[in-house]
Amino acid sequence: MSASTTLREEVLEANLELVRAGLVIHAFGNASGIDREQGLVVIKPSGVPYDRLTPGRLVVTDLEGRVVEGEFRPSSDLPTHLALYKAFGGIGGVAHTHSRRATAWAQAGREIPCLGTTHADYFRGPIPVTAEMTPEAIESAYEWNTGEAIVRRFAKIDPAEISAVLVRGHAPFTWGATPTEASHHADILEQVASMAWHTVVLNPAVTELSPHLRDKHFLRKHGPNAYYGQPG
Predict the structure, then answer these.
(1) Given this model, what pLDDT does residue 232 score?
(2) Which letter does DSSP use for residue 48 in this model?
(3) Are the CB atoms for 33 and 11 separated by under 8 Å?
(4) 76-119, pLDDT tens digit by residue?
(5) Helix ranges, the chain (H)
(6) N or C: which end of the chain has fewer CB within 10 A?
(7) pLDDT, the chain, mean
(8) β-strands 30-35, 67-69: how paired?
(9) DSSP output for 146-165
(10) What are the residue boundaries of the structural domains of the chain, listed by start?
(11) Distance separating alpha carbons of residues 68 and 41, to the nearest angstrom
(12) Which phi and psi angles does 197 have, rounded to 5°?
């Protein structure tokens, strides 16, 4: 089995976009993509600086985390990505950052409320926060259990409608139909995290956007009756 050149190049570009958007520092963060036909995942190697990444230096694994191509170890967050790919069948890419504002909300253990239409254009409701992980979950298979904590939090949430999560005390993960979209959602998440931060400071009594306005903005961009942008 071999990952396609196209997928490698898209995953590389998704990782570099995280850097260009100012969402990662040093070697923090990672993006991955999946070839569901072959059951292969392409992900950034662990600890390798972004300016040294090439398509050939990315790591390819199967859905059990076994390396099938690559000379480096995969990102330590690989098990979290795998848990999301297994649970959310409609996604084709995952991104993880430690972007400043979104991470601050995660460290505070607070969901990002949907306060305006910019948020609603991409996320149909607040960005949820996972439950605190138990010492046992942390000490056993930490990264896999992080993914499981995300999946549990989405038991009653459609991951196609809210494509982001805050891992309590840690940082955000985002996903999308492609690695490019996952990286784009990471950028949007940071922007709405910053907007919400400033809004709450300016007006601590602010309330969430009405469901009617929220849904109007989300559904005009997403779903079968979307009419934003150009057809095709």
Answers:
(1) 66
(2) -
(3) yes
(4) 999 999 999 999 999 999 999 999 999 999 999 999 999 999 99
(5) 5-20, 78-87, 100-108, 117-120, 135-139, 142-153, 179-202, 211-219
(6) C
(7) 95
(8) unpaired
(9) HHHHHHHHTTTS-TTT--EE
(10) 5-219
(11) 10
(12) -55, -50
pLDDT of the residue at 56? 92
Closest to 87 (Cα-Cα) out of 45, 146, 28: 146
User: Is the pLDDT assigned to residue 230 strictly greater than 90?
Assistant: no
- Alpha-carbon distance 151 to 230, whole Å? 33
Beta-bridge mates of residue 184: none
Q: What six digits make up the tokens of 158?
A: 């459609």
Joined tokens for residue 146:
């992080």
Q: Are 101 and 34 in contact (CB under 8 A)?
A: no
Active site residues: 121, 228
CA dist., res. 61 & res. 53, Å (int):
17
pLDDT at residue number 1: 62
Whether the predicted pLDDT of 206 surpasses 80: yes
**In contact, 75 and 29? CB cutoff 8 Å:** no
Give the C-alpha distances (Å, rounded to integers) separating 202 from 29, 179, 199, 206. Answer: 31, 35, 5, 9
From edge to edge, which strands make up the β-sheet containing 40-43? Answer: 67-69, 59-62, 40-43, 30-35, 93-96, 172-176, 164-166
- pLDDT digit string, tens, across residues 12-58: 999 999 999 999 988 789 999 999 999 999 999 998 888 899 999 99
The hierarchical CATH code for the domain 5-219 is 3.40.225.10
